[in-house]
Amino acid sequence: MIEQILPAGVASAELFDDPPGLAPHPQEEALISRAVEKRRKEFITARHLGREAMGKLGVEPAPILRGERNVPLWPKGVVGSLTHCTGYRGAALAYALQVRSIGIDAEPHEPLPEGVLDSVSLPAERKWLKKAGTDIAWDKLLFCAKEATYKAWFPLTGRWLGFEDAHITFEAGAGGTEGTFHSDLLISGETHSGPPLASFDGRWIVSGDLILTTIAVQ
After folding, report:
1. Pick from 1, 217, 218: which is nearest to 106 by CA?
2. In sequence order, which residues have a C-beta less than 8 Å from that of residue 87 and are 6 or more positions away?
3. 112-117: long-range contacts (C-beta < 8 A, 24 or more apart)?
4. Neighbour tally for 209: CB within 10 Å
5. Going residue by residue through the chain (218 aa), what tens digit of pLDDT does each one get?
6. Where are the domains of the chain?
7. 107: annotated binding-site residue?
8. Is 147 annotated as contributing to ligand binding?
9. Considering only CA atoms, which of 16, 173, 7 is closest in space to residue 93?
10. Residue 70: exposure state from Cβ atoms within 10 A (0-12, 13-18, ≥19)
11. For residues 71 and 78, what is the distance between their CA atoms, to the nearest angstrom?
């Protein structure tokens, strides 16, 4: 599923459940020592997939620790992103010389809970949603795209990006279940290094009960 919406040069791995008996990397155990069983399984599987993607890149598999705001810490010279939700775990990695940052997010394909939309969207986005069709849970897709936007943003800036700080628009492909999105960043986009950020372009897909969004910043 994820390979369909990632560019060449980005390695990925995904699973739709947690393999039985999968153990965490010894150096990661402390990160989930107090986690409930469901959270432990999702964490272990997602990082297992991260190391699988490392192998596809030709990178020696390594522990994936956590940095500021729980951002995954990748081996030197590698950028990447993890995601997990009910029914999906995924990882996407690339060499930093080819891709500046990656953001991926998966969510169940169902509407947002009542009362959530106003806190995660802009007035212009809500106006567009009123005109969108009902074949796609566009409100959840919007949330998913905002999550991918934040995941691509933070490693480059080290700064918070609120839901109100990016205006997202969508285009659907011919089949109606995949397409592209554009994230206009509404705050200053200075980065740790390299050119400042003004926007991101991403891709989305809906398959069965899942929504998946990806951004690879070139």
Report:
1. 1
2. 16, 17, 108, 209, 210
3. 112/137, 112/139, 112/140, 112/143, 116/143
4. 12
5. 999 999 999 999 999 999 999 999 999 999 999 999 999 999 999 999 999 999 999 999 999 999 998 999 999 999 999 999 999 999 999 999 999 999 999 999 999 999 999 999 999 999 999 999 889 999 999 999 999 999 999 999 999 999 999 999 999 999 899 999 999 999 999 999 999 999 999 999 999 999 999 999 99
6. 2-217
7. yes
8. yes
9. 7
10. exposed
11. 14
- Annotated ligand binding at 47? The verdict is yes
Please tell me whether 39 is known to bind a ligand. Answer: yes
The first and second tokens of residue 193, run together, are 């290094």
Distance in angstroms (rounded) separating the CA atoms of residues 218 and 201: 10
> How far is residue 200's CA from residue 114's CA, in Å, rounded to a whole number?
28
**197 annotated ligand-binding residue:** no
Q: What's the pTM value of the predicted model, to 2 decimals?
A: 0.96
- The response to whether 134 counts as a known ligand-binding position is no
201 carries a ligand binding annotation: no
Question: Does the domain spanning 2-217 belong to CATH 3.90.470.20?
Answer: yes
Q: CA 123, CA 121: separation in Å to the nearest integer?
A: 7
Helix ranges (DSSP H) in the chain:
37-57, 117-120, 123-131, 138-157
